Amino acid sequence: MAEESALRFAAAGLGYRGRAVLTDVDFTLPGGGTVALVGPNGAGKSTLIKSVLGMAEVVDGAVTVAGRPVARARGLAAYVPQVDSLDADFPVSAADVVLMGRYRRIGWWRPTGRADRAAALAALDRVGLADRARVRFGLLSGGQRQRVLVARAIAAESRLLLLDEPFNGVDATSQEAILRALGELTAAGAALLVSTHDLAVAARIAGQVCLLNGRQWAVGPPADVLTGELLRRAYGGHAVDLPDGHALLVEP
């Protein structure tokens, strides 16, 4: 029997209040695979991710997580939001934030145990922040806070991770730490859906790239999607083909 997909979009239209703002989304994310979502601001990348979380509507077609409709798949995916969407003044430590990833497994009403704390510390270690466990979250750098959010998703032990611009504004050290941790996750069979503005990162991490701008323009291997012609059409700007087969986008 074929392995069940981690995530499937079938001719999906996604949006809010019954109106689709993103159409023609059709791809499958297998276990151990990575799909990178690319497109300009307002293209619908965050809406696509929110549709998996039940925060945006599936207006047309279907979206399934591990074979289940979104409405029956709550809690199956771990979410890594953009770091600037969180309140850095909230008085919790890095370890406290990572422990939140365990709540789905143990329940919000139950105290965390030794095994949960060990899992949180192990997740922090995987992103290179074990020594910052007791530091207040808001005192960490932006890149370190993003790594903590990735560690929270790791601690959840989900088979599907949704990452919304995890590399936005992070330093080179944090980017490499996140990339290393994500590589370990996919090697262990987890599936990743990652939105990013960085075309080089998309090409590096993803087996498939999904090009969006109001609709799905293309999906496939990075070398087939990140071409000058497709990027010009989807972004409405100019793209210069590079010798390595990728493209550099130049906004008009």
User: Which structural class is indicated by helix and strand composition?
Assistant: alpha/beta
Order of helices and strands: EEEHEEEHHHHEHEHEEHHEE
- Amount of helix: 25-40%
Task: Provide the CATH superfamily of the largest domain.
Answer: P-loop containing nucleotide triphosphate hydrolases
Profile the largest sheet: 6 strands, mixed
Beta strand % = 25-35%
How many individual domains? 2
| Widest β-sheet, arrangement of strands | 6-7-8-3-9-10
Query: What is Rg?
Result: 18 Å
Shape: globular
Name of the CATH first level of the largest domain: Alpha Beta
Average pLDDT confidence is 89
Features:
4-stranded antiparallel beta sheet; single chain; 252 residues; Rossmann fold; alpha/beta
Explained architecture:
A six-stranded mixed β-sheet has the order 6-7-8-3-9-10, with helices on both faces. The protein has a four-stranded antiparallel β-sheet with strand order 2-1-4-5, with helices on one face. It is globular, with a radius of gyration of 18 Å. 33% of the residues lie in helices and 27% in strands. The longest helix has 16 residues, at 172-187. It has two domains: 1-76 and 160-166 and 194-252, P-loop containing nucleotide triphosphate hydrolases (Rossmann fold); 80-158, no CATH class. Helix 5 (142-156) runs parallel beside helix 6 (172-187). With 252 residues, it is of the alpha/beta class.
